[in-house]
Amino acid sequence: MTLRLYDTLTRTVRPFEPLRPGHAGVYTCGPTVQARPHVGHVRSAIALDVLHRWLRESGYQVVFVRNVTDVDDKIIHDAAHAGEPWWALGTRMERAFTWAYDAVQCLPPDATPRVSSSIPSITALIERIIERGHAYASDGDVYLSVRTVEGYGALSGQDPDQLRASDKEVAHGQTGQKRDALDFALWKAAKEGEPSWPSPWGPGRPGWHIECSAMAVDHLGEEFDLHAGGLDLVFPHHENEVAQSRCAGHPFARHWLHHGLVTVAGGSGEKMSKSLGNSTTVEDVLERVRPQVLRYALGAGHYRSQLEWSGQALSDAESAYGRIETFVRNATEAATGVEPGEPQASWPDFAAALDDDLGVPQALAAVHSGVRAGNALLAARDLPALAATLQVVRRMLTVLALDPVSQWPAAGGGELAPVVDALVQIAVEARADARARKDWARADEVRDRLNASGIVLEDTPDGVRWRLA
RNA sequence: GGCCGGGUGGCCGAGUGGCUUAGGCAAGGGCCUGCAAAGCCCUGUACGCGGGUUCGAUUCCCGCCCCGGCCUCCA
Questions:
Q1: Residue–nucleotide distance: A30 CA to B17 C1' (Å)
Q2: Within 13 Å, how many C-alpha atoms sit on residue A160's CB side?
Q3: Gap between the Cα atoms of A227 and A336, Å rounded
């Protein structure tokens, strides 16, 4: 079975057919580094990280590119307000994004181009578009002439005539130097106090859409395999990328993949976004739960569906992931060093689920059924089968970046873990003595006091185990 | 107004023209345990509303209601 992915352009799930077999060039629109990352940003990264990891697991040589938009109206505005240079704000926020992506175990992209470092490619691309008769300079601005683009609107399903009839230009009164209301800026003439770069049309800075067309081609070539991003970028951003690139004579992306947005539970039910003032930052969430729980909460649903963010979603994730962790921990203890026998977890089920448009929910069902089978093997002391099952389950978890052993730090303790363990052992021995005397009241008292300190005891066939609650 | 996507059992969340059940969480019952914890087994009979097609629809078609995304910066 080969990988099939939903393609926004054709609105169907169809085979992923890269230009060069065995190679996958993926471009995704990264963040505008204006403010700290919120849960929605990380959901995006996690969804695409699963794609990234699954491509690699499937044997593709992947080049994964995620840009950083560091030249932008809002960054310039906010930085000016804060009295700092635009690049200082951008750099600081870019670090915050990198930290958040790392925190939830997203693989680093192979390239993270910045707009500010891509100006020469951008101006060269604009020149090319002008030469080919699809853009025009006007008072230091450059606009793309949308009416010259055949098939404009195909990606987003927009009809140019309908767009024209909309009131967007009227509302924004920005018809300015444009020949046609639909035209959009490739280059904006410099304004007082704003960053600018030299260009054939005078000093200025790039428009929003052109940067991605330029950076994608820089790193992946004029035609590449897959372009991804949030559903909110389909129009106008991606539509305009297609238009520009086609105007430059580039075939551009062969497959378009868009993920769903995070909405806010309760009152509004709207999309989470900085501008709506309803966002929850990643930092805030990670003060309450471990990053692997956040990863599970954001990654367990299908990438295209809308995800409603709530405290409930987080605690559900905590329980569900806890079950997986418990199994891996128990099984690892019991099966370490055991020669693996026949696994009772189905890697083919897992692989088929991911091959079918990254069906993570189905894939997790395969994980959970492996966990259930594994727990039964553990109870039956069938260690060889358990060892094999654990291997398969962990291989699945690794693809989803949810393996408790290799991908996430053990909970709590750190350097103090051996010390705590020694202290707990004293209590455990005291309890064992009491139990030997059948002094259940005393035994329970020891256990209760440990419980009160957040330490849970479990009696197993291999002895007493303790863990943090 | 235009263009999209969605409404599934207590909750989250897959999927399908009928077959054998998604999966998880929560709940109830049982097993295990001195009691617990962890775990295993069993139970729930769902598919927004109204029509239509069909031997049969949650799944296809039409209409309606509701929710969300885009049309403006946005993952």
A1: 42
A2: 18
A3: 42
Straight-line distance from CA A369 to C1' B19, in Å?
22
pLDDT at A331 > cutoff 50: yes
Identity of residue A104: V
| Strands (E) located in A192-310 | 204-206, 223-224, 226-230, 252-253, 256-259, 262-264, 307-309
CA torsion A270-A274-A277-A278 (nearest 10°) is 50
ipTM: 0.93
Concatenated DSSP letters of A153-183: TTTTT--HHHHHHSSHHHHHT--TT-SSTT-
Q: Mind listing the pLDDT tens digit for each residue in A399-419?
A: 999 999 999 876 555 678 788
Protein chain A, residues 2-31, with a C-beta closer than 7 Å to any atom of nucleic acid strand B: 11, 29-31
Using the predicted structure, report yes or no on whether residue A454 has a pLDDT greater than 90. no
Per-residue pLDDT at A398 exceeds 60:
yes
Residue A241 · residue A209 · CB < 8 Å: yes
Nucleic strand B contact set for A 199-258 (CB, < 7 Å): 208, 229-237
Segment A262-273, tens digit of pLDDT: 998 765 678 888
Bases along strand B below 7 A from a protein CB: 1-5, 11-15, 22-26, 33-41, 67-75
How would you class A465 by CB atoms within 10 Å of its CB: exposed for 0-12, middle for 13-18, buried for 19 or more? middle
